[in-house]
Amino acid sequence: MAESRFLIVAVDGGAASGKSSTSRAISERFGLLHVDTGSFYRAVTFKLLELGVAPDDPSAVETALARLRPGTRVEGRSARMEIDGWTPGDEIRSARVNDNVSRFAALPVVRRFLLDYQRGQADVARRHGFEGLVMEGRDIGSVIFPDADLRIFLEASSAARAARRAAEGHVDQIHERDRLDTQRKTAPLVCPVGAVPIDSTHLSLSEVVDRVATLVRSKLGT
Ligand code: DC
Questions:
Q1: Closest residue CA from atom 4 of ligand 1
Q2: Are the C-beta atoms of residues 35 and 135 closer than 8 Å to each other?
Q3: Which atom of ligand 1 lies closest to the CA of 139?
Q4: What CATH number corresponds to the domain at position 175?
Q5: pTM exceeds 0.70, yes or no
Q6: Per residue in 187-213, pLDDT tens?
Q7: Range of the domain at 26
Q8: 200 CB-contact burial (10 Å; exposed 0-12 / middle 13-18 / buried 19+)
Q9: Rg for the chain (alpha carbons), in Å?
Q10: How far is the CA of 98 from the centre of ligand 1 (A)?
């Protein structure tokens, strides 16, 4: 019997562009592990803030990171990061984390810390019997998995994105995070050549998911 292929789908986009809802739905439809790399940057940010380390002190950040031991727990279809046995919860969505995460994420030392960890999620998915993974973030199609089977870049107007965050009840500086994420030198938020841009401003979630699902099926030849 032919071995079924392992599928990698990369979903990038700005804050509140619909990455998580779309990726979660795609993971369910196709039996893929859902990996939210924003939650990894948030968990690391929370931990560093707790240790009293500031993003404007990269050498203190490097020293602190060297002591952290990241692990992964699979819950349902999602990969959850663990750090030294702590599994992050809602605290990583706090205003304090929102205000600091892009500053830490702009540091090359933080991105290096998470690079192999993120690529290693493919092995986690294989070990747990998934058909592949759908990974969302800012640099998945450009840096983490540039050879992914499918690379999606989600966009939406500022107004639509702000309304989505407000509906979730979160306080978030979407503009400021996007500015920092787009302008940083290391792995900035870009739509890489070859990625498929989808503007979701006037689309419902199920319309976006259907579009991505059609692209996935064409990759699978089904
Ligand atoms: O997806 P999110 O909004 O939860 O991500 C939080 C922050 O993490 C985002 O503002 C920038 C950073 N991030 C990143 O730099 N690279 C990724 N692949 C994912 C997130």
A1: 38
A2: yes
A3: 18
A4: 3.40.50.300
A5: yes
A6: 999 999 999 999 999 999 999 999 999
A7: 3-220
A8: buried
A9: 17
A10: 10
